[in-house]
Amino acid sequence: MNDDAARRLDRLREIDHVGDHPTVRPRDAATMIIIDRSGPSPQVLLGRRHHSHKFMPGKFVFPGGRVEPVDGRMPSASPLEPRVAARLMQAMRRPNAVRARAFALAAIRETFEETGILLGAKGREPVRSPGGAWDGYVAAGVVPDLAAVHFVARAITPPGRTKRFDTRFFAIDAEEIAARHEGVVGPDTELTELVWLPISEASRLDMPTITTAVLEELTARITGGFAHDLPVPYYRMVHRKRARDLL
What we know:
The chain is α+β, with helices and mostly antiparallel strands. It is 26% helix and 28% strand.
């Protein structure tokens, strides 16, 4: 582990003593980082959570949420890149390809629900929606393109929190934005505003510590060529202490 990775781990360990709630099983979740690399400095899209939320009120986060049963049934224009699928299935209970693609699709769906952004490609032929928010995708004629999705990190919320998630963090280039629905973000919605910021500036916002760590992991990944064969950091608890492994 290099010095930068060790510092990220130390920052997370500083907050791991917080929380004395009964242990709950983490729920599968997925998050999407949209990157705009068209300018001299890569920018990422972040949203501010509504101040009335009990979970992370007012924090800046990436769009994301729980994986839903319908996600794995949504058709896609292309499959996951094989190395992405393989890493998603590592350290997975009863690993299978359908569940792996469901993580990526959940991140795409949550992005649509929270920001109105549809990631993918305009479909040449209509596809059948499995229901829920995917109806909006089908109505817009957009199909998710999983080959464009990068797997950049995984993190499990430590015990002692009121809510725990086993989150897969994905990234995708802004060129994959196929359409937008206006009016999704506003003062009374889950995300009250969206901002595009260079990664170096984004890390100064009020955001969860793990989000800051993933931003730094993303910077290292971009510096390393942003290739699918780069290892994926996996943050979890081992012997009651935060650990950072590589998938």
